[in-house]
Every structure is written in structure tokens, then in C-alpha cells.
Write a structure and sequence with these properties.
The complex is a heterodimer. Chain A contains no helices and eleven strands. By secondary structure, chain A is mainly β. Chain B is 0% helix and 51% strand. Chain B contains no helices and twelve strands. In chain B, the strands form three sheets. In chain B, strands 2, 5, 6, 10, 11 and 12 form a six-stranded mixed β-sheet that branches. A four-stranded antiparallel β-sheet of chain B has the order 3-9-8-7, with no helix packed on it. In chain B, strands 1-4 form a two-stranded antiparallel ribbon. The chains are: A mainly beta, B mainly beta.
Chain lengths: 113, 114
Amino acid sequence: EAQVTQNPRYLITVTGKKLTVTCSQNMNHEYMSWYRQDPGLGLRQIYYSMNVEVTDKGDVPEGYKVSRKEKRNFPLILESPSPNQTSLYFCASSFNRATTEAFFGQGTRLTVV
Amino acid sequence: AQSVTQPDIHITVSEGASLELRCNYSYGATPYLFWYVQSPGQGLQLLLKYFSGDTLVQGIKGFEAEFKRSQSSFNLRKPSVHWSDAAEYFCAVAPMDSSYKLIFGSGTRLLVRP
């Protein structure tokens, strides 16, 4: 079954404690991206990756890092989380560009206290 | 400034009634256009997309959308709503000059009355 898998689904952490949210896709997609969803703001793009070892900033990259060492994985790293990063995070993948259908993970609800 | 606007935060319709969700965009050139649906606790699923050609686009679950260049709009419609359509709907655009970015509107939450 084609899918994008995010882990964990829910996470509560404390300010400053580094964390990683994993994302994996099994469709051999080249393009992957991370979004955060906040009430009234829709989804905002954090980072995206066009292929292995190729990443670029989206609209809200501050406080986040990503890496793309393998085609299937695109982890999101918060080196020093702060309360304003409390949000619902989605990973997505598509065949090669944002113009093709994006497949989304089920989301990670992150709370930073 | 480039933007995607969904003017309705909430819409409530009765089951069986027709539905129209509005989306307006502000870009220099016609971008690629999408509608996604998010069911409670789920990720987003693509309903339909417009790249070029016929301005009336058919999607899944009985949805359609019409692109109107003169109004910079891409409204989503469904002739008869089912209770299972209750969800949040997002309009999104991928600018032609930056097609690695997908920019979302703020969403419209659809409530369906029995």
C-alpha cells in the first residue's frame, strides 16, 4: 500500500530538548516536504527536498532542520524546540514536483511546554 | 503580495444540498491549482487539480471545480452533499515560477446538517 508514514503521531516535549520527527514514503517519490498546520493559517511549508541531498527552505524554516540522505526518508529536526513550534506537522511526498499529486502522512501533533 | 484566500472559515449545509467553497488567488501568472480535503484526524487527500485546458475540472467523491481567470478564482462545488463530506477543505496553488512550493489557503470547515 502506497503511504507516507510519520512518527510519532503525538509528542509532548520540553523547551530546548532536541527532537526528530521521522517521515518515510514507499512510493519512490523524488519530492518530499514538511508543513505545519496552525488554526486559521492553513498549512505552511517548512522545508522541501527535490531529491537526495537536495533541500531548500519553505516559508517558515526558522528553528527547523531537515536532511535527505535516502530517497525514502525525510526527517524533521528541532534542535531547540520552543513553545511557538507547538503545532500539527505533516510530511508529504510527490513524484517529482509540487505540481503532481502530494501524498500526506497522518500528521504529528507536537506540544512544546 | 502572492496569496491564496478562502474567505469562508466555516460553512454549514444540509445533507443533500449543493455546496460551493470559494478560493481566490493572487499571482502574476495562473498557477497550478488544487483542492485538498482533510478529514478529522487524517492527513490531506487530493480532490482535484487544474493545470491547463478545460476550466471545469472533475475530481473524486463527486466534486468539481471551475477555474475563472478573470476572477482569479477556483471554486469547489458539489451538487449534493453527503454527511461524510464533513471535513476541512484547502485550496492550494503551486506558482509556475516556483513549482517546488505548494501554498495553501487557510481552509474552510464544512459542517453537514442531517
